[in-house]
Structure formats: structure tokens, C-alpha cells
Amino acid sequence: MRMSARTYVLAGIAVLFRASAALAMTVTLQQGLNGYAGTTDAWLDESSYRHNNGGSIDLRVQWYNGRSDCTDLKFDLAARIPAGSTIESATLTLWYQECGSMSNDNAVTIKPFRLQPSAWWDENIYDDVNGYGVSYKFRDANETYQWTGGVDGGWSDKIDDGNGVNKIKKTGATPPDAVEPQNFISWDVTPSVRQWVAGQTNNGFLLVATDFVGSGNIAWGIFRSRHDSGVYYCPALVITYDTPVPVLKSTWGGIKNLYR
């Protein structure tokens, strides 16, 4: 079969278009979903600053005259995002189980920060046990490595990439832009995920209370950890990325030969 010159040109354009195309993909990382087992998390107790909560079913974030109890949360990205991909969006979602010490006019702002490359930590398996694993003061199971600021829950080890914020409140409370318990709550964490995919060491997020509105001086939220018995309520990281389509190498002569 012979083709016209115009058809050859169109065929060549099609090949070039295919070579430069990208495929949009979405992956959900959640403990137990499709065999994924790469989540680690623990909440850090300011008042019991050597206690490990890496085995707790809960994650806690508290405001108490400023930032207080906070949460470490990491998703292993190894082999999950193909090399050369472009991150379009990344959303962190937690199940907001309950709150404490909140008045009707209270709302607590929570923000996920990226932990700096040197700030690795050991989750361990305990629930309110002294002296083992990550805590408000230490990062490791042997209590050898402190957070940079000592008893500061990793605050001095955070990096602000510009991730989104969200607010929590009690059921029926008045702040209109805050989430009530027994709901999922999400944050845009695209900037941090882009850093990890670009090669920065992934030590996960530090979730901290950064603001408080209303009367009083203390309030906290409880979220479900990776240890929840149902996958549905475990923390989730949903990433949408564009991955390059494999380049189809061809010559102009090769294109013509396809139609001889």
C-alpha cells in the first residue's frame, strides 16, 4: 500500500506526539490497602515527653497556650512513583475521631510540615510507655538522639514547604471553616511530596497545632492511626502524578516503511 506525502507527515506528527505524551496516574497509600505496609506514625506527648505512642490507635494534636502534643506520620514512597514523574497533587487525609476541652467558639488550626533530612525517627510499638521509641524529646528507641530543640517535639526539625492548613472543632461549634469529629479531614501536601520525589530524604510529616481561636487556652483533636483495625480509617496519602510515556524511537524512513 502506498501513501501520499501528506499521510506520511500526519503519521510522523502522530509518532512525535506519542513520544512527548504523559500518562496521569493516581496512587493511594494507606496501611493495608492493596498490601501497602509503608505507614509509620506516632503522637508525641508534651507532658510525658519520654513516652512512646508508636503503637497507639490514636494520633493526637493539641494546642495548650501554643503548640503542644503533635504527630509524626510517614508514608514510604519507595517504588511507588516512577522516575521522571511530575507530581500534580498530593492530599493527606485523616479520620477525625473526637476532640477534647473545646468550647463552642473554639477551632484549632493544624498544619503538616516536612521533617528535615536528618530528623529520622523510630516508631516503635508502645502505647504511653516511658523510655522507648520516638517521643516529644527523643527520636530513637535507645533515647540517644534528641530532636534538635530537645523537648520540643520536632518543632526545630520542621521545614515549611507551604503545605495547606485545616481546622478542627467540636460537634455543633460555631467556626464555619472547621471540621467536626467523625469526619475525614484533608490537607494539601503537594509541596512536600514534590520534595521527596525530587530526592530529598523522606522522614515524613510533623502535624502541629499552629493557631487557636475562641475562649480558653487548650483544645485537642484525636485522629485514627495506622493501627486502626479497619483500613478505611487509617491515614491516607493520595498522589496524582504524570509519568512520561515511553518514547517510540523511529526515523522518517522507518515511518514510511510501516506503510510499504
- How many individual helices? 3
| Secondary structure: number of strands | 14
Overall shape: it is: globular
Number of domains: 2
What's the helix-strand series? HEEEEEEEEEEEHEEEH
| Fraction of helical residues | 10-25%
Percent range for β-strand residues: 35-45%
Structural class call reads mainly beta
- Low-pLDDT stretches: 1-19
Instruction: Report the end-to-end length measured between terminal Cα atoms.
Output: 5 Å
Give the oligomeric state: single chain
Largest sheet: 6 strands, antiparallel
Mean pLDDT: 91
Radius of gyration, rounded?
Answer: 24 Å
Structure description:
It is a single chain. The protein has 260 residues and is mostly beta strands. The protein has three helices and 14 strands. The protein has helices at residues 5-20, 190-197, 252-257; strands at 22-30, 39-44, 51-52, 58-64, 70-75, 86-100, 107-115, 129-130, 158-159, 166-168, 183-188, 205-213, 218-224, 236-244. Strands 1, 4, 6, 11, 13 and 14 form a six-stranded antiparallel β-sheet that branches. Strands 2, 5, 7, 9, 10 and 12 form a six-stranded antiparallel β-sheet that branches. The relative contact order is 0.30.
Keywords:
260 residues; mainly beta; 6-stranded antiparallel sheet; 14 strands; globular; disordered N terminus
List the topology elements.
Layout: H1 5-20, E1 22-30, E2 39-44, E3 51-52, E4 58-64, E5 70-75, E6 86-100, E7 107-115, E8 129-130, E9 158-159, E10 166-168, E11 183-188, H2 190-197, E12 205-213, E13 218-224, E14 236-244, H3 252-257
Antiparallel strand pairs: 1-14, 2-5, 3-8, 4-13, 5-12, 6-11, 6-13, 6-14, 7-9, 7-10, 7-12
